[in-house]
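Ticket #4471: complex job returned nothing on first submit. Input attached below:
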Amino acid sequence: MMVEKRYSDADLLAAIRNKSTLDSAIRSIYLNYAETISSLILKTSGTRQDAEDVLQETVVSFIEMVKKNRFRQESSIKTFLVAIARNIWLNELKRRERSGFREEVFETSRAEQEPDVSDIIAEREVKQAFRNVLSLLGDKCHRLLTLYYYENLSMKEILAHLPYDNEQVVRNKKYKCLQQLTGMLKDNPLIAKLIKAKF
Amino acid sequence: MSADNTTLLIDHLDHTLQGGSLPEATALLNTDPQAQETWQYLNIAVDAIQHEALHQQVAAVRKEMQPKRPIIRRLGSVIGVAAVLAGLLGLFVFYKFITVTPESVYENQFVAYELRTTRSNAETDALRVAYQQQDWQQVLNTYHLLPVKSGEAHFLAAIAAMQLKKFDLAIPKLEIIRSNYNYFVDEADYYLALAWLATGETHRAIPLLETIRSDKNHTYYEKARAISALDLRILSLK
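Support reply: We reran it on our side without changes. The output follows.
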């Protein structure tokens, strides 16, 4: 049986930032904080599936904040994760229009000085739009862009994963795929609105 | 925006620009609003890819952490299902053993021969008329009065006898056809096998049915194949 490493907060942040230890960091977050977050959701009318969904979104949002150096460590990781989960669930209940439970969630497990996670909540819709757009992108393009922009593989390394003849073909295909994805994002009203607001 | 400028921005995004291209890209972004917008979309595209990939990575790790059912329990389930299936199979075979009899196979397989308009001659006309009217006793009476009996006459009389359950009359007629004629032989094979089944002579009926079942050119091949191999096996055991 695999014994999972227990990280201190500082070590966990370092593990998240390192590609080779990210899986271990994710496991550690689940082992240490899943129960607390799940019970918060289950106590306020959520189902097991709701708890799993909120937990996953919380972990993803937290890792993204850490990777982009937006987690300022003004609270412990546990407090921060609970704040993210509580607000995601509150937001979800709002979407489902269940105000009675919203009040309950508002008070449940709320830290005295809750960290500000408003950015994460504000970005939720955009992130969902990302996922919707990507679901429309072809599998080959999706895989190629993931290998390049997430796995950070070189063109040569990508050749071992995808059936292309040479690096130049991979490069050309990547250009086309990225332009196709950009076009699809431009067609998404929510994302287009977000970009326009920046100009 | 031109394709060259888009390529320049993508190379800038990928950190692959060298020499004078980097200042060129920076200048483009500082002066061209359209380039700035494209730049935003390119960055958002990368964000989207990375967000989705992280989601998938987290989901994969989570899935890997879900408790797996122990192999022994899964094996137990498989054995359980196998035992239930074996039990059902046993019940099915037992049911078949009880219900499959020579008589039941005969009843399922016997279909009156349909008389065609060909193969006719004047001497058998009266016999054919009686057969078409399904007046089985009249068929037998007419058959007995025929001075010369053709293969068709023997065959129609045999079928009429089978309709009247007079298998002792039907069997010799069918055997005559098989021994002495070149036509109605396939028909005689099949109906003789059925007649033997009806009289409980399975040791004769089964080999004949097996012969028909192994000959794709036999007129009654499909009908004989309609009797399952299990049914034949049960009949041979009884």
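The interface with chain B takes residues 22-23, 26-27, 30-31, 52, 56, 59-60, 63-64, 127, 130-131, 133-134, 142, 145-146, 148-151, 175, 178-179, 181-182, 185-186, 191, 194-195, 198-199 of chain A (CB under 8 Å). Closing as resolved unless it happens again.
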